[in-house]
Sequence to fold (321 residues):
Amino acid sequence: RSKSTAFIGLGRMGSEMAYNLFSKKLAQSTDSHFVVCDAVAESAMTFRQNLLSQFPGTNIDIVQTPEEAVRSSETVITMLPSSPQVKTVYCDRNGIIPALKSLKSAETQSTLFIDSTTLDVGVARQIAGEVTLTGAQMIDAPVSGGVTGAQAGTLSFLVGGTEASFLQAQPVLEMMGKRIIHCGSSGAGLGAKICNNLVLGVQQIVIGEAMLLGRNLGLDSAVLAGVINSSTGSCWASSVNNPVPASLSDKTPPCEKDYEGGFATALMLKDMDLATNIGKVSHSPLPLGAAAKRIYEEAIQRRPDLAKKDFSSVYVYLKDL
Ligand code: NAD
Fold:
């Protein structure tokens, strides 16, 4: 097999990550062949065109199934919405695990799987277990840093897996991110990611509440954001992702583009769901997490158009109440 690198899932995050990875590999001449796959054919075609326009003559193939990606690649990165899509890509008839089972053990042993999706810890552990049974390596490596971090190549990767698989993945992850943290064994990266997003999901709502309260008290939104960002209420949800247009002077949060781009409200609801589920399983009380989940749910129910918009649009829902 050739030493190609495959990327499956070229959405808002995956397309930026794959672009950084492939362009850096090209610059270092470490790889000459790339494979991409997405359920939406247009996403894979657009990605291929973008890469070719910057690096003419690059050897990049679009494949229709994860099975084909595995057959030609030694490193496979997946960046999918959540658990159902990861199960499909890894376990379906044309998926990764059946393909691995049909390869010779010498071929599977050198193959590394990096799943950067934010998904259920239990599902991730089960899939990683099945992959490693074939002799291949697999890590969970969800990310923090959003679309801007993916574009800039400054993501934080939170890794769960063995020391050996972490070391094998490190040079690949360094081409897409700045901080690569080994959080523990399989599933530990996801555990850390879900805890972080629990904080973020709650904070984005309370910043929306505070900005709305300030407005109703007659405060200028730029003045209030300036106070919060230099005081004890300071957090990313206010200083980078502030939900009120014109409240930040030198940054361009999604609210400036009618909440387009960024991290979809539907995906934040998914993460709140992952947190509350794992909270139940591990007997951890999450009263604020449960309340935040209800608020994102109601926001999408009342305003279905917010589902695909950045989750800071929860402010729009609060304003409409
Ligand atoms: P997205 O919906 O934009 O991208 C997902 C991509 O996967 C899409 O292109 C979709 O067509 C593709 N896909 C779905 N099913 C597939 C299948 N069976 N086979 C092949 N491709 C398939 O989502 P995103 O915003 O890029 O997020 C991806 C993951 O990263 C999610 O788990 C999310 O929670 C996490 N995340 C997102 C952000 C963010 O700011 N967007 C930040 C951190 C983490």
Remarks:
- The first strand starts at residue 4 and ends at 8.
- The chain has 15 helices and nine strands.
- The radius of gyration is 20 Å.
- Residues 188-216 form the longest helix (29 residues).
